[in-house]
Amino acid sequence: MHAFSGQKLEQIPAHVPPELVYDYDSSRDPRMLEDPHARMRSLLLEAPPIFFSPHNGGHWFVTRKQAIVDITMNPEVYSNSLFHAAESPAGEGEHAAPQPGFLMLPISTDPPQHTAYRAPLNQPLAAKSVAALETAIRTMTNELIDNVLDAGRCNFLSDIAEPLPVTLFMQLAGMPTNRLAEFRALATQATSATVDHATREQIFKRIAGILTESIKLRQEKREDDLISRLLDANIHGRKPTFQEMLGYSITLFLGGLDTVVNALSFGVRHLARDQALQAKLRADPSLLPGAVEELLRLYGVACPPRRVTRDVVLHGVQLKQGDALLLLLPAANYDDAAFPNPEQFTLGRTEQHMTFNAGPHRCVGLNLARLEMKVFYQEWLKRIPPFRLDPQAPPRFTGGFNLAVTSLPLVWA
Ligand code: HEM
């Protein structure tokens, strides 16, 4: 048996054999805080492929690509629907999800209900549709670069990575840009690792309040934006209710926020430590889409949960109805059964990485995420001279539901 240090732990259930118990606290693990992706790689070497950790309520972790694909392709057994934000397995961690008190759509539903809820998002978020946002993304990126260029330094997280996706979400949802500063501040607080649970709840109430106003305005008068299109969507032969609209808006907001912030920040940290790669991408920007994809693979961020609906054996491990699983997508990207030389940055890989997951819930915003990242790197590498980590202030990280960067000071000549 492992000796678990520190806090109160759940009892290890009788069906969990001792050899599958591994001491891993995603929120407080010191190695996680030092370098989250190095910790993911160490889990592949040190922990069983499916292991149980009693921290934060006690749940299973899955680290290999094939097992995760099998889980996501079988939503009848591995359900999203039992996860309302309030009972997330990371519920006690700093990255606990908010408790909005309504169904997060479409993510908290299972097929066939999920299919109906997801359908209205597919077309507006398809590659062709989001291409219309390219100019706006480029303009926003350049405005943010203008603010830091001459200083020769920035905190990438707060100066660039946080503002960009919030601004873009507001544009996508058709929210008034005169409320940008207010919404940006709320968004930053909402996803901050240092905000306590009660404050976070208050912040989410205020965000829901602002989204409510936007939905009401669009109810009165449609515009050319996502909220207007969702209002006219057909779900089970009717239009979405107000609560459903709120469920969509919050999920889109959250889905596109923390994830993009962290994917961008980890990617930029990689480039800051690899001057040769920076030079290569500056010299040939046509390599950027491939580089974005490989940075996404190396730096997965989301670890989505599932709940087991009936007793089942998964890759030789007995699971019981009600068990909670966390899919460690960032670890699965280093699974050498799926990715040759997984630790290497390699352009032109053909295997699908797991950062956006697989199965029916595979990220519906992935085209937008890729576009944001591609345009960002194009402009950043064009305008910012060779940059590196600030030797006086190393980056800081945190674990929890998502793998996250909390500070990323950069310098350039
Ligand atoms: C690099 C950035 C992003 C990453 C790493 C990411 C990751 C993910 C993952 C892993 C899932 C699957 C969750 C599950 O299996 O339960 C997901 C779903 C989702 N994402 Fe993203 N995401 C990103 C960007 C975005 C953006 C920009 C949007 C907004 C347009 C978005 C909206 C959503 C939505 C609405 C879902 C739920 C889909 C469903 O349940 O069918 N994501 N995302």
Automatic annotation (TrEMBL):
The keyword Nucleotide-binding does not apply. SUPFAM superfamilies: Cytochrome P450 (SSF48264). GO terms for molecular function: heme binding; iron ion binding; monooxygenase activity; oxidoreductase activity, acting on paired donors, with incorporation or reduction of molecular oxygen. It comes from the Bacteria. The keyword Metal-binding applies. Keywords: Heme, Iron, Metal-binding, Monooxygenase, Oxidoreductase. InterPro entries: Cyt_P450, Cyt_P450_B, Cyt_P450_CS, Cyt_P450_sf. Coiled coil: none annotated. Belongs to the cytochrome P450 family. This is Cytochrome P450. It comes from Polyangium fumosum. The lineage of its organism: Bacteria, Pseudomonadati, Myxococcota, Polyangia, Polyangiales.
